[in-house]
Structures are given as C-alpha cells and as structure tokens.
Amino acid sequence: MLIALTGGVGCGKSSSAALFGATGYRVRDADLIVREKVLTSPEVIAAVTDRWGKSLLADDGNLQRAKIAEIVFSDPTERRWLEQLVHPKVETHWRKDVAMAPECDWIVEIPLLFEARLEKGFDFVISVGASESVQIARLIARGMSEAQARQRIASQLPLAHKFKFSNAVIWNDGDIAFLKAQVLHLARTIALR
After folding, report:
1. Which residue range is the domain that position 119 belongs to?
2. Does the pTM of the predicted model rise above 0.85?
3. How many domains would you assign to the chain?
4. Residue 81 shares a structural domain with residue 100
5. Does residue 13 lie in a domain region?
6. Which pLDDT tens digit goes with each residue over 20-45?
7. Long-range contacts of 160-167 (CB under 8 A, 24+ apart)
C-alpha cells in the first residue's frame, strides 16, 4: 500500500512518519530528498543561481537553504517557480524507491501533497494537524521568529482543506504517547482494509 502523509508545518509529520516506520512501513521523506538529492544536483544549483545569483552558494558550492527560504517565503511567484523546478525531481526519487520494493507498505511524507496535486497517486492519504499556537511554538523552537513561523503557515493550504481531502487525520496537540496511540490505531485500521 502506498500512503501519503501530509499536513501543516510544525504539526509533527516527521514524528508521525517515524512512528509508522516503527510499525513496519518503509518511509520516504520528500523534504529529506530535497535537501540531500535535489538541491545538491548540479542542474538545480545552476537553475537556482541563474535565477537568483551566485550569492546563494556556500563556500562548499552547495546552495544556502536559509537564503532560498528568505526569497521563496516572501514572494509567492518565486516559491511557485522553485516548486515547479523541485517537485517533479522529488517525485522521481521516491517513486524509484517504491518501484524497487512494490510489495512493501510505504509512507511517503509530502508536506505540499495537495499544493502539488499529487494526492491521486496514493492508495490512502493521512493529514497531521495541530493548533496554530502549537505550530508556532514548535517553529519558534526550531529557531524561527514568530513572523517567519506565521509566514510559513500562511504559505500552505489551510489544514481544513487538507483534512477534507484526506482519508484520515491525526491530531498532534498532545504528547508523544498520544501521537503514538493514534498512529498505532491507524496502522491497525489500515491493515484491516
């Protein structure tokens, strides 16, 4: 079974994915693919520096993600440009992984699943949500300012939209034990389908 795991920024998608992984699912993280494979590819580095300049390069020749974030989260046109460049390459990577083990149950963590219109390619969609105050607190704990946290949240579709088009929702305002109980229940329920 191929399951998409999505939700809002700071809602606990990665924690949920790790818990699914502990139940036997194979997990692929789209953000990790972006960081480790897509943004490090010469083709993407060239496209980004052609558009925004060589000042985005670090001393090691890699792109400085923090500088890219400043650009794309302050300008929706630039964010769309980057997403159009990156999303197809990310999908190619995780689809290749899934194709190598089609007999396995997979969780693919894709924060912008609905924004990229990828939901139809999955057997089941799970959204992870949390209250905005919890999201903001988690993002501040990661080093963002409150303004940056609000900007990131506003750049995504509202959680209500994601919930409406998901097969299941995990609510992550509680502690890790509450999250784990929801994931285990959901994993058992999916296994019975």
Report:
1. 1-25+105-193
2. yes
3. 2
4. yes
5. yes
6. 999 999 999 999 999 999 999 999 99
7. 161/114, 162/6, 162/7, 162/8, 162/113, 162/114, 162/127, 162/129, 163/127, 163/129, 165/114, 165/119, 165/125, 166/6, 166/125, 166/126, 166/127, 167/124, 167/125, 167/126
